[in-house]
Amino acid sequence: MSIDDTTSRAPGLPATLTPALIERLTALVAAGADADRTTTTAPYTGGPLAELPVSTPAAVEDAFVRARAAQADWAAVPVRERARILLRFHDLVLARQGEALDLMQAESGKTRRDAFLEISDIAVTARYYARTAAGLLAPRRRRGAVPVLTHTTELRHPKGVVTVISPWNYPLSMAAGDAIPALMAGNAVVQKPDTQTALTALWALDLLREAGLPKDVWQMVVGRGSSIGDALMAGADYLMFTGSTASGRRIAAGAGERLIGASLELGGKNAMVVLADADIGRAADGAVAACFPSAGQLCVSIERLYVAEEIRDEFVAAFVERTRRLRLGAAYDFSVDVGSLTTPAQLETVTAHVADAVAKGATVLAGGRARPDLGPLFHEPTILTDVTPEMALFAQETFGPVVSIYSYREVDEAIALANATPYGLNASVWSRDGAAGRAVAARLRAGTVNVNEAFAAAWGSIDAPMGGMGDSGLGRRHGADGLRKYTEPQTVAHQRLQGFAPPRGVSHERWSRVLTLALGAWRRLGAH
């Protein structure tokens, strides 16, 4: 059955996106004056959106030269002054959010409510690292080798120049969200946002420079990975990548060859487990929120739903009814629930997965079709059942508004089914019993697990690490890990008085007996 749509065909670009604004943003791309240009299109309409200069490998190399020169001065800026810049950026993001909301919608096709989540996310990220970086980066006393005699300190130095490669689906959260802690740690950043959503990333760069960030400390290049990827790897002291697992493997191999660190957030085939005691209405609402934000183009959204057999029929009826009520369409306001897919390639994947599943026996409970009457890249939120392993969407990431429902009898079975994937990014558990929900969550192989929530609880808990297991990547963003990964730890150990060699006149044999007695004494005293 069709999804409710109360909006007309997609509107044109909003008045805020003036030629002057777009020209100002595109001028921030690190590219030569005679650079080739590439045109992006608006997903709502398929019409042209912006012409962006394309960076050559030579332009990327030049960006690294300028970033490295600027980084030394930036690292010398006191952490609390860097924090003040971030707090000014926080205020500017909130004050000027209208521009960013329009940009995100125009470039990605998402709804305004989904775009606003990125505004709030970046404000929280900026505030968190502005408030915590001084403590996280401060010198830390460590236990010395010999009590009293060894004074040991851990220092944190910036890596140098960090390469950030960010995706199109969350153009503000992923672009600014990964650059912020790298910059706070004293690094410079050379970033390649996805070309389709580069204007949003450039808007964040423009605002942070307005807040006081020196010009060359954060630079952006635009181009295909096949053209400038090698230059981005060659110049990096550390690399942060968000994207596909296949690309992540290539980047990990390149980073390993250069012996530099990398943090990779990759694909997912995320599961939601509804326990038999779940509040069915609340869980159905949660499933809608879990499966269809940003038209399902969200790394932590749910694509597999496991429901206890005894409540399956009631839950499915509630979930399908809520899904069919969703308002699908395009509007530069808060009036619609689900927006457009972003690229033709993504629509092709979604339609191919659904068609393959239906041809092999899957049942469509809601949605199931593209909606060209609303715009070129719209697809209805879709619920499938009777999905089997030979269907592409059974195990492959769809990255669209499509979810498959399965039932289970025992909790152990549900956990085994949820874990039966090489991915391990996010999961969701629903139960009236919080302790039971947390116990199941602890057994799921995923970097973040939400109890009675879809993904926002874990993602929004920015003091805690976020990232994937298995084919979903390595490294973490958020929390202390999200800042310290951009630093090199250094141990400075100052040995006072007696060192580790025997004192003059004492044989090595006698000295070994003395140390043996000392080690035994420290053990009895409970020393670490």
Can you describe this structure?
This protein has 18 helices and 18 strands. The protein has helices at 19-26, 57-76, 79-95, 97-108, 112-137, 173-184, 198-211, 225-235, 245-258, 280-291, 312-324, 344-359, 392-395, 411-419, 434-442, 456-460, 479-484, 508-524; strands at residues 37-41, 48-53, 140-142, 150-158, 161-166, 188-193, 218-220, 238-242, 261-265, 270-274, 302-308, 363-366, 382-385, 402-408, 426-430, 448-451, 473-474, 487-495. β8, α9 (245-258) and β9 form a beta-alpha-beta unit. The mean pLDDT is 95.
Secondary structure tally, helices? 18
Number of strands: 18
Distance between the termini: 65 Å
The fraction of residues assigned to DSSP E strands is 15-25%
As a percent range, the share of helical residues equals 40-55%
Mean pLDDT: 95
**Low-confidence spans: pLDDT under 50, at least 5 residues?**
none
Which structural class fits the helix and strand makeup? alpha/beta
> Largest beta sheet, briefly?
7 strands, mixed
Oligomeric state of shown chains = single chain
User: What strand order characterises the main sheet?
Assistant: 12-13-14-11-10-15-16
Backbone CA Rg: 26 Å
